[in-house]
Amino acid sequence: MTRSEENYLKTIFHLGTGQGGAISTNAIAQQMDTKPSSVTDMAKKLADKGLVHYKKYQGVSLTTSGNRTALSIIRKHRLWEVFLVQKLDFTWDEVHEVAEQLEHIKSEKLIDRLDAMLEFPRFDPHGDPIPTKEGKFLERDKELLSVLPLGSQGVCVGVKDSSAPFLKFLDKHGVALGKTIEILEKEDFDHSLLIGMEGKKLRISHQIASNLYVKKNEPWNH
Ligand SMILES: [Zn+2]
Fold this sequence. Notes:
The structure is a single chain. With 222 residues, this protein is α+β, with helices and mostly antiparallel strands. Helices cover 41% and strands 18% of the residues. The chain is built from eight helices and eight strands, in the order αααββαααββαβββαβ. The chain has helices at 3-16, 25-32, 36-48, 64-88, 95-102, 108-117, 164-172, 206-209; strands at 52-55, 59-62, 143-144, 153-159, 180-186, 193-197, 200-204, 212-216. The strands form two sheets. It has a six-stranded antiparallel beta sheet with strand order 3-8-4-5-6-7. Strand 5 and strand 6 (193-197) form a beta hairpin. The two termini are 33 Å apart. The structure holds zinc ion.
């Protein structure tokens, strides 16, 4: 399988998560920043290999085999991210780009040994679950900070946006996974929040709050 085919499978998986049903070729084209006609060509190719279901005008969905392949790429991506942070001192805003390259390495033996060396981590540096070799993963109970009522308290367990600018913003203000956040004020006007975090107070926009996942009142145990 080529790198490009693998990237398509991963994108279809991410677009389909939680929705079920087929993904339109336009949605895939938009996400991958390419032409719908290229997506159609690729969809036919992947369908020939038994990795997706594709019918003209009906969109694309992963077959069991396509789903398994997508999960294995995501597993590699997230394990490499853990490795880069834990063993090579990369910061969490740097790892995604490098993992995009490393996720295409084929050796199963390498990935199994990497997994074991890292002691079988269940979550990546952004709080996303890492699928096991069998393709199973634990989805943590989590809610967006923006939907919680005033007075709520929870531990930050993930980010919805894992782009470098967002992660750098969080670093700058000391927001990190594992920190306890309390909602002290909520503005009716623009839904911005005043949050308390380890004795410090911070005002954050609705956009920031809708990209932070918290788990209410339970300890962080990564
Ligand atoms: Zn990543």
